[in-house]
Each structure stands twice: as C-alpha cells, then as structure tokens.
Amino acid sequence: MISSFVYLVDSEHGLDRKITMNQQKLKSESIEIGSDVWVGAHAVILKGVKVGHGAVIGAGSIVTRDVPPHCIIAGQPAVKIGERH
Fold first, then answer.
1. Parallel, antiparallel, or unpaired: how do β-strands 44-46 and 7-9 relate?
2. CA triplet 27, 36, 50: central angle to 5 degrees?
3. For residue 11, what are the β-bridge partners?
4. What pTM, to 2 d.p., does this model score?
5. What value does the mean pLDDT take over residues 32-37?
6. In 10 A of CB 49, how many CB atoms?
7. Choice among 13, 53, 70, 85 that is catalytic
8. For residue 26, what pLDDT band results from cuts at 50, 70 and 90?
C-alpha cells in the first residue's frame, strides 16, 4: 500500500558549480519495491533503493538506503525502528 503524496525519486543531477545545470548529466537508478510493503504519507524514496518484501516505511521518512524484508523504518534519514512479524 502506498499512501498519498509519496515521492519516488529515481534520478538526480550533479551539483557541480563549475558548469551550468543544463550541462550536468542526469544520474538515474531504478527503485525496487517488494510485495506487501506499506509506505506512509509524504515518504520519499531515493534512487537506487530496494525495499524488501513486507517492509514498512513511516510517514514523512526519507529513505536513502536499502530496506531489508519485514523491517520497519522511519525518520529523516530513515533508520530501523522495528520488525514486522
């Protein structure tokens, strides 16, 4: 289940101040979300993150790293706060 206002951000541009924004290359990595995952409102999942089956992501979390299966995470950046049984 994915709640409202969840952002899946699968790309970014560099922050090289020596060149203009239009000249910077886009970096992209897919996001993988397993089955039976719950994502709370206003959560942000960044590029390259893999969310394991049965994981729970708390509302307002910023997910910067992979989430193991059945793990409950929350915060900015998101950290493990428990496990789903």
1. parallel
2. 20
3. 28
4. 0.89
5. 98
6. 22
7. 13
8. confident
pLDDT at 22 exceeding the cut of 90: no
Q: pLDDT band at 71, cuts 50/70/90?
A: very high
DSSP string, 14-54: ---TTS-GGGSPEEE---EE-TT-EE-TT-EEETT-EE-TT
Torsion angle of alpha carbons 14, 15, 18, 19, nearest 10°? Answer: 50
Tell me how crowded residue 76 is: count the other CB atoms within 10 A of its CB. Answer: 13
Distance of CA 29 to the CA centre of its chain: 11
Alpha carbon 3 to its chain centroid, in Å, reads 14
13 annotated active-site: yes
